[in-house]
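Table S5 (text form). Sequence records supplied for joint modeling of the two-component complex.
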Amino acid sequence: MTRLYDDPASFTEDMVAGFVAAHPRYVRPVPGGVVRSRRGRQGKVAVVTGGGSGHYPAFCGVVGPGFADGAVIGNIFTSPSSEDAYSVGRAADSGGGVVFSFGNYAGDNMHFGLAVERLERAGIRAHNVVVTDDVASAPVEERSKRRGVVGDFVVFKVASAAAEEGYDFDEVVRVAEHANDRTRSLGVAFDGCTLPGQDEALFHVPDGKMGLGLGIHGEPGVSERDMPSASELAKILVDGVLAEAPEGATPRVTAILNGLGATKYEELFVVWGTVSRLLAEAGVEVVEPEVGELVTSLDMAGCSLTLTWLDPELERLWSAPADTPAYRKGNAVTVSEPESTEVVESAPIDEPIVVVAPAEGQATAATVVRALHSVADALRDAEDELGRLDAIAGDGDHGRGMTKGSAAAVEAADAVLAQGVGPAAVLVAAGDAWAAKAGGTSGALWGAALRSFGDLLPDDRPATAEDLAAGAAAALGAVQRLGRAEVGDKTLVDALIPFVDALKDAVADGSRGRDAWQQAAQEATRAAERTAELTPRTGRARPLAERSVGTPDPGATSLALALSEIAGVLTGEGVH
Amino acid sequence: MTRLYDDPASFTEDMVAGFVAAHPRYVRPVPGGVVRSRRGRQGKVAVVTGGGSGHYPAFCGVVGPGFADGAVIGNIFTSPSSEDAYSVGRAADSGGGVVFSFGNYAGDNMHFGLAVERLERAGIRAHNVVVTDDVASAPVEERSKRRGVVGDFVVFKVASAAAEEGYDFDEVVRVAEHANDRTRSLGVAFDGCTLPGQDEALFHVPDGKMGLGLGIHGEPGVSERDMPSASELAKILVDGVLAEAPEGATPRVTAILNGLGATKYEELFVVWGTVSRLLAEAGVEVVEPEVGELVTSLDMAGCSLTLTWLDPELERLWSAPADTPAYRKGNAVTVSEPESTEVVESAPIDEPIVVVAPAEGQATAATVVRALHSVADALRDAEDELGRLDAIAGDGDHGRGMTKGSAAAVEAADAVLAQGVGPAAVLVAAGDAWAAKAGGTSGALWGAALRSFGDLLPDDRPATAEDLAAGAAAALGAVQRLGRAEVGDKTLVDALIPFVDALKDAVADGSRGRDAWQQAAQEATRAAERTAELTPRTGRARPLAERSVGTPDPGATSLALALSEIAGVLTGEGVH
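The corresponding C-alpha cell record, covering 1152 residues in total, follows.
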C-alpha cells in the first residue's frame, strides 16, 4: 500500500516538487507539469506526454534529450486538466508545434483535446496521438477504443526520437501513429494498489487468482484465472500478443516486460526467460528489450508484455539515445544540437476578453454567481458523503473533485462578475476554472455543461423559463457528447436527463422558471436515488461495478444536490 | 508477495537465465554468477560485487563498462558459496586481480574469504572490501560490525570507476575502503517480503507501525514506531544519518533515497522533497542524488537514506559514466578503451590433487563415505521437518540447504574415494562440495567442520577413539571461529559443544570409539531438544527471535540427527 505522504490532497504537488528537486538537470516545473530544464533547439517539434500520475517512470521520468520535451502531470490516476496540458504544451513549444501523446482514456481525450484547441487558437500547431495498445480492452475491430498502457512508452520514445532527429510536425505525428499501429500489449494483475491516504486498495484480486487483461487503474479485464506458474504466464502473454500481430509485419520486434510496481525484477526475469524462448520458437527476433518497471501503477502487483513490430525506421528510433531521469540509452547528451540555455518563463495563460454586459445581463450574472456560491457551499458540506459513495465502486475522489472544482468556479465567477460581464461570460469562466482545478472526467463534464448552459443565457434581457430549459438541454448535449454515457450507465446522465425532461415539460405547461426548476430538481433527486438500483458503467474509475449495487451514483447525487441548491436561489430571488 | 516462479528450488537459476537473455550485450553467465560479456582491458583491476540475490538491480544489474566486472549471485537472501565467488572472480580477472566488494554479513564474509584464498593460491591477486554503512546495526564504536546495505551501491560504483580509470590494485582497494568510510545509511521498513514459493512473508511489521533500522533481510532494527508522515520520516532519516557525519568531512555529499520494492517512486519523491530541503538547511550540498530502487529486497515495503561525504576524488568517481543493464550514466560506452572481444571460457575450477592413501586409510575413508551416505539419506528424509522448524524464526530453507549440501558431499566423496584417497581427502572434498552447493551460513559451517574433522583422521592406521574426539574438537573450533556463535545463542553450537564434551569424557573414561560416539550423539540429541527453551541468536536469517521459543533450533536438530546416523554406521561397522 501507499504509506508515505503528508497531505493526501497535495500528494501530486509534493511528488512533483521532490521529483524536480532530484532532477534539476533534466526538468523544471511549469503549471500543470514539467518541461526540459533546457528548451529543445529552435523549430524542433515538441513531444509532450502525460496523463494521471502514479505511473512513474511514466510520464515525467522520461523528459530529457532524446525523449519527451514535457510531461503533463495529473493527480494520481486522474487526467490532467486542459489548462495543465495547455500550459505544459505552451512551455514545451520551441516553435515547431506540440505533439501530445497519451493513453486512450475518456478524461485524457477530453482535456488534451481542449488543450489542442487552445494551443491552435494561440497560434501553436498541436495534435494528439492517442495510444491504444491494450488488446484486452476492446476487440480488434475496435482498436480505437482500446486503452493505452505500456505501449505509451514505445510511442513516446519513437515520436521523441523522430522529433530529435529533425522530423517535421506531420512526420512526427505519422511515425507516432505508425508506432501505435504496430504495438500490442497484454497485462495481468495479481492485486490492487492503494491511493495515498486510503486504507483500502482500489481493488483486490482474490488470493491465488489472476486478472487477465485487468487495466492499470483496475479496469475490468477479460477473465479471472487461477494463478499460473511463471512459464504458464509467459505463454499466456506471448500467445495473447502474437495472436494480434499486425498484418504484413516482419518478425522483428522490440519487447517490454513491464512490472506494475510490486511484481519485482527477479520475478520478471524468471518470466522473461520463458518469454524470450517462446518468441524465438515462434520465429520472432527481439531487439533491445526492456525488462523492468517502465509504466507502474503505484504498488499494484502484476505485469504485462508489450511487443512492437519493427521496421527499419521504428528500430532506429527505438534504439536512438535518450537521457532522462529514469531512462537512459547510449550517448544521448552528445546527440542533440547544443541546447539553448534560455530561461523560459512559466507559461502564460490566455487572458479572457471582457465584454461588459447591459444591466439586465449583469443582473442575471449576479444571480448565476449567487447560485454558484450556493452550489459550492453545498458540495463542500457534502464532500465526505460523496467521497464515501464514490469509494464503493470508484476511487473515492468525487467529493474532493467537486469541492475543488466548484470552489475554483466561484472564484473565477466572482472575478469576472466584478468586471461587469453577463451570465455567459460568468459561466464560461466558471466552467473553465472548474475543469482546470477539478481534473478527472467529472471536472471536464461540469466545465462543459456550465459553458454550454451559459451560451444560451441572454445578456440583454432577463432570462426566461424557456432560456433555462434550452440551457439545460444544451448542457445535457455537451455532457453526452463528451462522456458518451447512456441512460442506465449509472452516471450523472441518469439524473440529468430526467431533470431536462421535467424542466422542459414544466415550462411547456406554463410554469414560471423558478417553479419549473424546483419541480425538475425534485425529479432529479428522485432519479439520483433510483440509480442505487443500477449497476454502474464500468471503466477507469469504476472497476468494481457490482459492488455499488444498492448505492446511488455519486455523480448523479452531486448533480441533484447542485440543482436543488440552484432552485433555492431562484426561488429566493423570485426569478420568473 | 512474490508470486511468479516455476520451481522455487531453481528460482535463482531461472532468474539468472532470464536476466542474461534480456541483457546479452552486457553480461554472460559463468558458474556462480555473471561477468561482463566483453572482458575489461588487459591488466585492469576487476571489481566483483555480489551476495544473495533478491536485491536487483543490486548486484547483477550493475555489471558493465564503468561499473562492475562481475557479480556473484547467491540464492535469494543467501550468501553465494566460495566456489561461486571463486568462479566469478576467476572469470572476471583480466590480469589485474580481483577486488570483491559486498555487504557485511557472516555468510558472505566466510565464502568470499575462502574465495580470496583460492584465487591467491591460483596466482590471482584478490581482496575483499566489506561494506558497513548501516548505522542502525551496531554502535559507531563498532563500525566494522555494521551491516552493508545501500552503501554497497556507492562503494561498488566508486571502486569500479577507479578501476576503469586505471587505478592499480592497492589504489582500488584504498578508494573503495575510503568510500565505505564516508558512507552512512539508515533505513526503515513497513512490511516484509515473501520468498518464492512461500505463502507467508518472511516477517511482518504491524499495521500502522514502522521498523526503524530494520535490515534488508528483516534483521532486527532499533525500534518500532508509529508510522510517520512523509515529512516526519524525512526528518528521522536526515537526522539519523547526519548525526553520523564522518569527522572532517566537507558538507558536500551524494545521496540515495532507496525504495525496497513496494515503496514506490511517487512516495520516494514526496519524501525527497523534504530530505533535500532539510539537507540544504543543514548546509549540506547534494551532488547527483539518486531517488529510486537501487538495492531492493523483493517486494519489501520500506526505504532508506544513504549519504556519502565526498571529496574531489570520490565526487569524480561517483559522477563517472557507467553503462549497465540497470544503471546508466553519461557516455560510458565511449570512455573505456576498446574492449577485447575475446570469448572467455567458463571459469575452470581447481582440480584437486589426488594422494593415494595406504589400505588402512582407504578403509577409514570407506567408513567415512558410508557415514556420509547415511547422513545424507537421513537429512533428505528430514528435509520438510527441518524446513518447518526453520520457518518459525528464519527463512525456512534449512532443510533444503542441508539436503543439497549433504547430497553434494556424498557425490564428491564417492568420486575421490574411487581414486584411492584417505579420510582427510574424502572429508575435504565432501566439505568443499557441501559449502559450494548448500550456500548460506550452515553450508559454510558444515563445510569447514568436515574439513577440520578430516584433517585429524590418519591415513596410515585405523582411526582411534582419540582421533574421533580430536577431530570433533577441531570441527567445533572451526565452527566457532567462522560462525562466532556462543553457548545459548540457539545455534548448532548448542548441540555441538555437549557432543564434543561428552565424546571427550567418554574417550577419557576408556570407551571404544563407537560407544563414545553413541553416548555423545545421545547427549547431542538431548541438547538439541533443550534448545527449544532458548531464544535464538538474532540476525540475518532470524528476524523473529521470540517466535521460536518452544521450538528446537533446526541447525542443532539436524546436527544431532547427523551425529546419530554416524553413530549407527560406526556401531554397525564395529569401529573401535
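Note: Chain B touches chain A through 61 residues (CB under 8 Å).
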